[in-house]
Amino acid sequence: MNKGERTRKDIIDKAFLMAGDIGLEAVSLGALASETGLSKSGLFAHFKSKEALQLEVIDEVTRRFTNSVMRPALTQPRGEPRVRVFFERYLDWIAHSRPNGGCMYMSLFHEYDDRPGPVRDRLVASHFDFCNTLSRIVSAARDEGHFRPDVDVDLFVFEFNGIEMAYHHQLKFLQVPRALELARAAFEHLLARCRAPSDQLT
Q: How far apart are CA 170 and CA 34, in angstroms?
């Protein structure tokens, strides 16, 4: 990595942290210049606009999420073990991906749910990629005989996301001490409803 690439990475890392504190929309080139000690013209050499910077931050969130959650899950055996690791890695991401906790994706979803444009479009595309990956993992669990043949994959993904969002809300906003325990209990109920009878397992 050359000096220019390192500088660009340092800028994106700082913007990632700032977005977690003040929201991505508030991360302007001027504010970032103050945080990094670089000039606005220096920042402009790397990012031609605020929107270009925002898109890079979203790509960085996606890269970190992929490395922290999706790739470790995909190394696990097909079926329920892979679903479980995906869930646990996502819980860990929510608790530890930012210095003060919380999922950057969920914060950005709330920030941009009513803001049309390229930034929202990039977020939507990233989330659909996540949901499609999870759908394939759940479908594989069904194909392996771990889940019932009639499991509704879309409903599973919906409930999976709902549990993670509820965990984020209780952990970050309400600071409920039992948040992790409750999230895991809800997930176990979801698995129990979807699991194939033991005499059907191969």
A: 34
SS3 30: helix
pLDDT along the chain (202 residues), means of 10: 84 93 90 84 83 94 97 97 98 94 94 96 97 98 97 98 98 97 98 82 46
Task: Give me 161's structure tokens.
Answer: 């996301």
| pTM beyond 0.90, yes or no | yes
3-state secondary structure 75-103: CCCCCHHHHHHHHHHHHHHHHHCCCCCCC
For 51, list phi and psi in degrees, rounded to 5: -65, -40
Q: Hey, how many other C-beta atoms are within 10 angstroms of the C-beta on 100?
A: 8
Amino acid found at 126: S
- Ordered by start, the domain boundaries in the chain are 49-200
Rounded to whole angstroms, how far apart are CA atoms 48 and 8? 12
CATH architecture under which domain 49-200 falls = Orthogonal Bundle (1.10)
Identify whether the C-beta of residue 61 lies closer than 8 Å to the C-beta of residue 108.
yes
> One-letter amino acid identity for 117?
G
User: Which of helix, strand or coil describes residue 26?
Assistant: helix
Question: In angstroms, rounded to a whole number, what is the distance separating the alpha carbons of residues 101 and 105?
Answer: 12
**Contact status, residue 167 vs residue 180, Cβ threshold 8 Å:** yes
